[in-house]
Design a protein that fits this description.
Blueprint lengths: L1 E7 L5 H10 L6 E5 L2 H6 L6 H10 L5 E8 L1 H15 L8 E7 L12
Antiparallel strand pairs: 1-3, 1-4, 2-3
Helix pairs in contact: 1-4
């Protein structure tokens, strides 16, 4: 098992990703509102150059969505394909980031289905 964590810079893509996840049998994710470092620094007087950086990377948005999904290793690529399809690719500037972390033990939840 692994936890797939991805930061989605455009929250408008979230619903489509969740629907696509459901279509392939991924039925559980936890979603939290998050704010990136560039956004915090943009309001800091000592870091005024970050204001422009934040606007460029986040296209004027002040928050992100961070999604946590526990999956079997063989499901990770399917999930990443969906994320890349909907966002236009995480390699594009300001679209987001994804990574996985190995999971040793899970208690509760419906992860067995994923």
């Amino acid at each position: 098992m692994e936890v797939l964590i991805f930061v989605l810079n455009d929250p408008r893509d979230l619903e489509e990703i969740m629907v696509e996840f459901t279509n392939i049998g991924i039925s559980g994710s936890t979603i939290i509102d998050t704010v990136g470092m560039a956004n915090i620094l943009s309001s800091c007087e000592d870091a005024s150059m970050f204001s422009s950086l934040q606007l460029l990377l986040n296209k004027g948005r002040s928050s992100n969505k961070t999604v946590f999904t526990v999956l079997k290793k063989e499901r990770i690529e399917q999930a990443l394909e969906i994320i890349n399809k909907v966002t236009g690719g995480l390699n594009g500037p300001g679209n987001g980031i994804a990574f996985t972390i190995p999971v040793n033990r899970v208690f509760g939840g419906s992860f067995q289905q994923n």
